[in-house]
Design a protein that fits this description.
The complex is a heterodimer.
Chain A lengths: L8 H26 L5 H19 L3 H23 L3 H22 L7 H6 L7 H20 L1 H9 L1 H6 L4 H42 L3 H26 L3 H22 L1 H14 L1
Helix pairs in contact in A: 1-6, 1-9, 1-10, 2-3, 2-4, 2-9, 3-4, 3-9, 6-9, 9-10, 9-11, 10-11
Chain B lengths: L1 E12 L2 E12 L3 E5 L6 H8 L7 E6 L2 E2 L10 E4 L13 H8 L6 H11 L15 H13 L5 E5 L7 H18 L2 E6 L2 H7 L2 E6 L1 E7 H5 L2 H18 L1
Helix pairs in contact in B: 2-4, 3-4
Classes of the chains: A mainly alpha, B alpha/beta.
């Protein structure tokens, strides 16, 4: 593969925004996966599809409406789950199908949009503009700062809500904040992998990292590394082989996951751990 | 000095009384054992005291302040739950879990290490939390409760389902904390023998409080012990 492709502006923008998106998806995703809300990102992405369709139908900037709808859905979903004690997977199922349904109905009503539905569904990272890249970088930076500042509160609430509450952590506010961040992350990431594959970025690197990581910090670093590696190699490979980047990114993510499963099942990881422990003792 | 003062505490779930007119206080340095059969209201009492349950009647004061007015008292209280519920695959080490409980400290790692030593699990610091046994887990949760140097430690049946060797170790830690560091402990338990050995005060709860006072007075009074076992038996029959 020639390094010449890295000199192209569109490729540089794709890689830079891809890395930023990988960073936030894996970080936010780690908290969601550990809270058994792995499909939450998927549900929000589907509701964002409804938001984009509504924006186009009503003549507003679709991305802003998508942000509003995703955040509204995230908060609504949390409230419904809390108030009516409906199980998490059921509420995700409702949001998932209703988001797409709203989108499809609005598209039919308008007789089709000029916007490329395929790129909404599967992403179009190679088309990001300079403005988009700056926006994604800014948003990713803001999300990471909030997560770093509230790291203890977020991890403690994820570990055990009741104990966090007794420690004086405002658990409900932290939970709402996390779903708002998840909503923003999802809409920002639609450009990279599209609506249908978004949960892969939230879930696969984290499940892989949880299998291998010995500590929370190590797991977070592993998850971020897997996500960034999948995104960068996925984008480069898609250009070389002329295929959709999102599919390639998810497949590379899956390949890392399968390799990790292999490492785990053959006991390679424990072998290295025993050797390390022996070294420390001697 | 009264650290905890509870007056006329009444709690009902859909008109079924869980606690009725409970009154007691806890002084600095007390080791209070709360005993009572299953369903006697011990966990409900703790939920009210820790601010997890808000809809109760009566008054609960910590450090002379009504807990309805401020949650500030929680910074001086450590809590060990009956059975720590968490995702078994949670990728955190023992040190990281204890550190979660730590609010502000100049040297967090040093503080965590010292707390782990206090409960004799320093060597487990780098182990993943899901790999520990029940007894080890409870000591981690004690460390987490102690890491902020609380003035009161509340434990809700902390040794349920733990082997007898781990139980003895756990009791030894509690005794040391109370005797050597003058830590006030409120502890609910089914283990009357352990309560008789460790606690200087006892509260017998069975929806109402039918005894609160010096431990020796309770355990040397045949009539009170008989009343306790009869009421426990009634509760047991009622539940079945």
């Amino acid at each position: 593969m020639s390094l010449e492709i890295l000199t192209y502006g569109f490729m540089q923008r794709a890689i830079v925004s891809g890395i930023a998106i990988a960073l936030i998806c894996s970080t936010v995703g780690l908290f969601l996966v550990l809270r058994r809300q792995s499909l939450f990102g998927d549900a929000l992405a589907h509701s964002a599809f409804g938001g984009i369709a509504a924006g186009l139908f009503l003549g507003f900037y679709p991305t802003w409406i998508a942000y509003a709808v995703a955040i509204g859905s995230a908060l609504g979903l949390s409230k419904i789950r809390q108030r009516f004690q409906i199980s998490g997977d059921a509420t995700v199922g409702i949001l998932l199908s209703s988001g797409i349904a709203i989108g499809v109905v609005l598209i039919s009503l308008s007789g089709g949009f000029t916007v490329d539905i395929f790129s909404l569904l599967f992403g179009s990272i190679l088309l990001v503009s300079v403005e988009d890249t700056i926006f994604i970088l800014g948003l990713a930076g803001a999300i990471l700062i909030v997560i770093l500042l509230l790291y203890r509160e977020l991890s403690y609430t994820t570990f055990n809500e009741e104990q966090a509450k007794v420690s004086g952590i405002p658990v409900e506010k932290i939970n709402y904040l996390l779903v708002i961040i998840a909503g923003i992350t999802v809409v920002t990431s639609i450009q990279l992998v599209g609506i249908l594959l978004i949960s892969a970025l939230f879930v696969i690197p984290n499940v892989t990292a949880i299998m291998l990581g010995r500590s929370f910090k190590q797991t977070a670093i592993l998850s971020i590394s897997f996500a960034i590696f999948s995104v960068v190699t996925g984008i480069l490979a898609s250009y070389v082989f002329d295929i959709t980047p999102s599919g390639m990114i998810v497949l590379i993510s899956m390949a890392i996951f399968v390799t990790a499963l292999g490492v785990k099942s053959t006991g390679l990881q424990s072998y290295h751990r025993i050797r390390r422990t022996k070294k420390i003792k001697s | 000095m009264k650290l905890v003062d509870i007056k006329n505490l009444t709690v009902d779930f859909d008109r079924i009384l869980a606690l009725q007119d409970v009154n007691f206080s806890v002084s600095k340095g007390d080791f209070l054992g709360i005993i009572g059969p299953n369903g006697a209201g011990k966990t409900t009492l703790f939920s009210c005291m820790l601010g997890l349950k808000q809809n109760f009647k009566g008054e609960i004061k910590f450090f002379d302040k009504n807990i309805r007015k401020s949650k500030q008292y929680l910074t001086k209280v450590g809590y060990v739950p009956q059975k720590p519920v968490f995702e078994k695959n949670f990728p955190a080490t023992v040190k990281e879990v204890v550190k979660m409980g730590l609010r502000k400290h100049s040297d967090k790692d040093d503080k965590v290490d010292r707390t782990l030593q206090q409960v004799w699990i320093h060597e487990l610091g780098l182990r993943r939390i899901g790999e520990l046994s029940g007894g080890q887990l409870q000591r981690v949760f004690i460390a987490k409760a102690l890491v902020n140097d609380p003035q009161i430690l509340i434990l809700d049946e902390p040794v349920t389902g733990i082997d007898s060797q781990s139980k003895e170790l756990f009791y030894e830690i509690l005794r040391g904390l109370n005797k050597n560091e003058n830590l006030t402990i409120i502890w609910s338990s089914h283990d009357l023998e352990a309560v008789a050995k460790l606690a200087n005060k006892v509260a017998c709860l069975n929806r109402t409080l039918f005894f609160h006072g010096i431990s020796n007075e309770f355990f040397s009074n045949e009539a009170l012990l008989k009343q306790y076992s009869e009421s426990s038996m009634q509760m047991h029959m009622h539940q079945h």
